[in-house]
Write a structure and sequence with these properties.
By secondary structure, this protein is of the alpha/beta class. It has a domain of 137 residues: Rossmann fold, CATH 3.40.50. Helix content is 23%, strand content 30%. It contains five helices and ten strands. The protein has a ten-stranded mixed sheet with strand order 3-2-1-4-5-7-6-10-9-8, sandwiched between helices. Helix 3 packs across helix 4. The protein is globular. It starts with a strand and ends with a strand. The relative contact order is 0.12. About 18% of the residues have low confidence. Bound molecules: S-adenosylmethionine. The site of S-adenosylmethionine has 17 residues, from helix 1 and strand 2.
Length: 220
Amino acid sequence: MLLDIGCGSGLSGETLTEHGHHWIGCDISESMLDVALERETEGDLLLADMGEGLGLRPGVIDGAISISAVQWLCNADKSSHEPRLRLKAFFGSLYRCLARGARAVLQFYADNVKQTEMLVSFAMNAGFAGGVVVDWPHSSKARKSYLVLTCGAPSVHTSLPKAKGQDGQMCSSDDDDDDDDESNDDQTVSSFLTIQFSWFIHFELIYCSKSPSLVCCFIP
Ligand SMILES: C[S@@+](CC[C@H](N)C(=O)[O-])C[C@H]1O[C@@H](n2cnc3c(N)ncnc32)[C@H](O)[C@@H]1O
């Protein structure tokens, strides 16, 4: 059983169905879930704000995906929202509902490096091993960042997938603009090599200027 966090109208869940998986989708938006119902998606749908915790029983989920949703936790959209508390509730509940050794791949768009750091550090504090993989790092249009997490201590199975386009090849959807946007988070990240978050958590960002695919690994 897989979980699609921020499932929206069920487009991402449909891909799970096509690959033979059963899934549960959760979303904060009732209207998006109504569209998913109208589209008769196969997944079970849950109206839930991930920032309040997922509310699922421990160990019942075998894997999780999320497309462009978790970055919203870094913002305070309401006066009552405290991003740090919401990130803690989300990653803690995600860790608990996943079976040990399960994986979660969360694609996100961060506004800046601080948001990426927040996502990574709260995931680590919840107990996840893993890191950030950036596909098409040269492309301002196709670049995509993924938090790739494994539930439990790092092992030989914790290795991160290779990012697409990291050898400098361009994505077909990209025109010719590999002129990198100075404001994007990956450029900013390049100025960091190693960040020590606390005495027991070591967070490393590895950045190679010749092949600017970013991979950051963390070891709880
Ligand atoms: C860009 S859409 C992606 C929808 C779907 N995953 C897809 O690929 O088509 C992001 C979704 O995240 C949902 N979302 C945003 N904040 C959320 C939260 N705090 N809890 C649950 N879902 C949230 C939005 O309602 C929206 O449906």
